[in-house]
Design a protein that fits this description.
The complex is a heterodimer of chains A (523) and B (416). With 523 residues, chain A is mostly helical. Helix content of chain A is 79%, strand content 0%. Chain B has one domain. Chain B: Required to protect lysosomal transporter MFSD1 from lysosomal proteolysis and for MFSD1 lysosomal localization.
Amino acid sequence: MAGSEEQRSLLGDEDEPLPGGKTSRGPGRPLPAICDPNHLLHRVVVLLFMCFLGFGSYFCYDNPAALQTQVLQDLNLNTASFMQLYAWYSWPNVILCFFGGFMIDRVFGIRLGTIIFSLFVCVGQVIFAAGAWTNHFWLMELGRFVFGIGGESLAVAQNTYAVNWFKGKELNLVFGLQLSMARLGSTVNMNIMGWVYNKIAALVGGPGYTALGISLMIASATCLFSLICALVLAFFDKRAEKILHKEQGKTGEVIQLRDVKDFPFPLWLIFIICVGYYVAVFPFIGLGQVFFIEKFNFSPAEARAVNSIVYIISAPASPVLGFMVDKTGRNVVWVIIAVISTLASHMILAFTFWNPWIAMSLLGVSYSLLACALWPMVAFVVPEHQLGTAYGFMQSIQNLGLALIAMAAGAILDSRGYLVLEVFFCACICIALMAVVMLYFVDYLRGGDLNRSASARAKLQKEGTADAEIKRRRSKLTEGDLARLAPMSAFGLRNRYLSRLGAQLPDHCSTHLSSLAHRSVLK
Amino acid sequence: VVPEFRGSNWKGSVTSRSHSDIGDIQKISTRGSQATCSSCQSLFRGATTFERQLSVELNPGSTSVPPGGDLLHIRAVENNDTLHFLFCSQGAPALLLVHTNSSSSTVQVNWPLFSARNTSGSLKVVPESSVLYSTAVVFSRLLEYDDTNNTADPTSDFFPPYELQNFTWSRLNLSGPTALLCGTDATFTNGSLCLKLSVFDSEGRGLSPPHLLHTSNSSQMEVWLDGLLPRANRSRFLLELQAVGGAYPLSRVDTRRSIDDEFTPSIFKVSQWVSAPNGSSDVLGFVQWKPVAYRQTNPSLENATPCRHSDPRPQNGEVMAASSSLIRAFYPEPEPFGLNMSFGLSGDPFYNNTKYLSWTVLVGIGSPPVDSFSPLVIAIMAVGLGTPMILLLLGGLWVCVRKRAACSASSYQPIN
């Protein structure tokens, strides 16, 4: 079966040296290295385009946060309407989390799908900028909505490409690079947009919505660039398909909404943690700039820098923390630690005048830790064939939560100020904390896997391997039956991890994943 | 000077609803008549909360309407002390607070001398021995400058200032313990500068932003500049204030950082211009404000604009006394300090944008009120932090009990 093949190749990937480009198959081909789809050099070129494929959408997602003061002033908005820009991004993704993968696999195919989603991102950003240029706020909201349709699905497409090109080779490295690229996009945006705006304002003779519109139009160049990357990738992929006679990549997601009723109680707790936690992070970053300016007397540039530290820290911290979580196991404890330290950082921001670099760095680390510990837990509590649905559902309600809380946060800030807003975020985190404490006890009483140490898991896996071999041999006989189940493959999982949330599976996770893959056998 | 934030000096907060809204100001009091505001129920106990009986009197002791402007006297009586709030529009608008240790002290005005504005002692609080402390604030000048480079640095390009003593002031418009005064300069083509004084019988908060916390020892003055035609497109304004503080002049401004912006969103500072003995933290009288002004009639976060104050500087007492009947009449030799409030920072919209600017300030005696967390914030944090703790305890207990039960159940080993 395709799924188990991939897992095995992922597993094997560990033992291979990373620059595994010496696999020069097909001797006698006259193509130079850079044009040969089999050659590492060619793949590096493709990787370059792959990385920049998502750059535009990550760059533009946080445009409003980077230009918060300007957007508020030039368009004469209150914070509640400002946060609508984030809410409108999340709305389409409440639905699309379920269908993005399906549309790539069955409707468009990866190449057309990627181009279409890039087009959505690009057009959305242009509409957004045009709305600012003409001072029509509804047009900006429409732009964010269209942008949202493309944004999240584009991430799925990007990962599918990565798997298709690098499966069994440098895949984990590629995933890491893509995530770093995403973080780079966010960080560059946070730190450069203010400067761009000031330059434009000086050029057009003063700040105003015209300057804002032009700045956002310039930002949309990054989306255009991403669209070009999508076209180039489509070309390369088509060409490679012709030369290598390989199949077009698939996300491999199978989502069946009727599975939702079978979700176990711990999974619902994980959903609560996910929503409670992330709604206290992303809307806060969206609103952070003015907070740092007003409360801590930061300059706008400094405020943008401290606001982007979460993303900057997340890039290097994710692999390290992922390694740590993977080596120690005990995911629930790690999640508890992450949630408590996030709560602490919000409380520091709310109740003290300590330098916000402290709190924001703590937030960055705990945010990365949570991503590493929380998202893999889903795989422990649901059977493989429901993983796609579980992750889709998790992202969907997360987007729903983000949309609602973004609106609420803006309204709270307008009427009650930052202290109450921070207290509100603390309350959200406290809900997540309650859920994770309950999860700890529920898992303890059920004797679940969630909080087992890595060594205990390895032991269990060892015991299970023998059975697994037998089962696998047997499964070959009944491949037709099993095909209907279509388990969520390792790279399918990967697609979900690697969303905007920054849940990166570290390099060695393939072993971990393979244990997940056999989990149904273990029990 | 940035003193440490003190978080728990004050018992709590509540919005006082004892006064009618700004909208329906009606003239309920004419010359010599009195209106008493019934004291409203205070929600808070404790030593810091006073309730005062307020009685409002316009032009006390005058038999006719004084030609130069009105004098409002609000007497706020407590068990064994009295606060006299005097607000006068003869000359530049001035507010005088006199604190006495007697519940029967009164104000005496010699009207001909008072209106002549040339002799001191024409207004007295008797018995004079009961006077503990007095402080006065005069809104003396409105300054306008052309901020061509949008730096909001008021150093040059000033237009000739508007002297508030030369304004034509309306009669005082009373509504309970609030008084509205509007005035225009001869050069105004339209628009006006208005001041609204509110005196309170108990602790509470302003009804509209910046929702300043007040006690019965303070009065709130809202100043707004509405519809004035600025003399340049990029005009910004400053308001000059002068203050007298009896034995100890109001010589320093403390800016206190506060983590609590619940009632004034995104403003984390409160400034107080205090009269205090040198180096002492005992404050006798204060002028308190949050560094924010609003650019629209419905104040909210989106039309807020920051403001800054200059350092207080000694002013000429004679000039100040000449500008206001009230100061001349009460203080023989005032030692005023003055400062400028400047509205808007670099990059903020100019006055021309909305042609409206409002700013609120609290004038009182004793220590200025200190914000503390509202019950809402405390309740959310208590529930938010408490519930996981309880959950953790209960869960731990339950697990222990089950473990013990499992232990005792398995302690009976089969014999063989």
